[in-house]
Structure formats: structure tokens, C-alpha cells
Amino acid sequence: KQEVTQIPAALSVPEGENLVLNCSFTDSAIYNLQWFRQDPGKGLTSLLLIQSSQREQTSGRLNASLDKSSGRSTLYIAASQPGDSATYLCAVRPLDSNYQLIWGAGTKLIIKP
Amino acid sequence: GAGVSQSPSNKVTEKGKDVELRCDPISGHTALYWYRQSLGQGLEFLIYFQGNSAPDKSGLPSDRFSAERTGGSVSTLTIQRTQQEDSAVYLCASSLQPDNTGELFFGEGSRLTVL
Predict the structure, then answer these.
(1) DSSP-derived 3-state class of residue A82
(2) Which residues have C-beta within 8 Å of that of residue B103, sequence separation ≥ 6?
């Protein structure tokens, strides 16, 4: 059974730092992995989608990597800003599912000014 | 539309009343999902639509919950005889591809409070 884990559950860093959020999954048989952010009381915003054949995706200050064989993905945030404060969620789409996503519990990120 | 639109954004109702939540997906997106997020909890899958069909309704918590989708576009989630434990944010998402590679886009959610 696929399980997705995000560590740490919470992270607080000063503004300007580069940081890495981690997502691990137990079964490498996936179609893709997607990173989202969720602001308090809001819906989810898609950040990056990495297909299983890809190693990384970049968008602005964000870079997501995927190592399928080791069951790991990282989300790298460069030059963090207070506006990056949110909960970051990763989700994988298993090969044996037509539509289901398996979700991590999220990392709550606080960037201190 | 430009994004996934959900209404109402907030709904307060009394226990026992029926509620309808609406989702208008991104134009052209064939796949539509409903999720529920209780306070401080993760996402709970409710139902998935491919076009107007719902291949899997097993995530619906009870027979008080139902959902439909018409014209391959707008979807309505109906909760009958609401209970306090139904209080949560109900999130809708849509995806372009009818296969398994599609990126999911979420709406802002409908926050339901049952008194």
C-alpha cells in the first residue's frame, strides 16, 4: 500500500534562506508526483508536477526533484520570503489507480521577516 | 473559466438541513474530484468524475452524500440531513487529461459549518 510521508511537519526559518522540503513514498510505481501549497482557509495551489520519467521541474524560485527509485522528492525554495509561508503538500498518483492521489500530511512552513 | 470555481464559499446551516455545493471546473477539463478537509486534517477523497460518470463513489462517507455532474462540466455535491461531523471544507479539483498524467487544479473550497 502506497504511503506518503512529509518531514518535517513544521519548519520555521528566517527570510532569505534557501530551504528544502522532503516528501517520501513507499512504492516507486507512480505516474507522477505533484507539489501544492495551501494558505490558511484557502484551497490548494498547484506548484509543480513531475512525471515519473522526469528528474526535476523548475518554476521561478521553486525546484522540485524526483528520485523514483529511492522514493523521494524534494522541493527546494530559494531566497525564501514571508509570502512563502504556507502548508506544502505532496501527492503521488500510483500506477494501480486510475484517479486516486495519495497525499502527504504536509509541511507547515513559516518564513520569519 | 480561468480557474475552478466553487460556491458558496461559506455555508452555515442547521443540523438536519440539506445543502448543495457547486463546482465549476476549468473549461474543457474532463476529470473532476471532490475532497473533504476537516479542521487540521488531511484531504479525504470523496468522489471522482470522468465526464458525467462517477467510476468510484466509495469515498462518500454515507448515503446522505451524493454528487452529480451534468454536461461534463458543473458538479453538485449534495449533503442531506446534515450532521455536525459534516462540518469541513469541501474542495473540488479538475484535470485536463482523461488519463493518469494530469495536473490537478483546485478551487478555493466551500466551508460548511453545521450548527
Answers:
(1) helix
(2) A34, A46, A49, B95, B96
Q: Does A42 touch chain B (CB under 8 A)?
A: yes
Minimal Cα distance from A107: which residue of B?
A: B42
Beta pairing class for B19-24 and B5-7: antiparallel
Please indicate if any CB of chain B lies within 8 Å of the CB of A43.
yes
The residues, any chain, with a CB within 8 Å of residue B11's CB and separated by 6 or more, are: B19, B21, B110, B111, B112, B113
Give the pairing type, strands B10-13 and B110-114: parallel
Of all residues in chain A, the one with the smallest CA distance to B111 is A41
Closest CB from B42, B45, B104 relative to A34: B104
Tell me how close the Cα of A101 comes to any Cα of chain B, in angstroms.
9
Contact A98 B107 (CB under 8 A): no
pLDDT in tens, A98-107: 678 899 999 9
d(CA B66, CA B79): 7
Burial of A90 (0-12, 13-18, 19+ CB in 10 A): buried
DSSP letter assigned to residue A84: G
Question: Which residue in B43, B50, B99 has the most chain A C-beta atoms within 10 A of its own C-beta, making it the best mutation to test that interface?
Answer: B43
Per-10-residue mean pLDDT of chain B, 115 residues long, equals 90 98 94 90 89 87 95 94 96 82 90 97
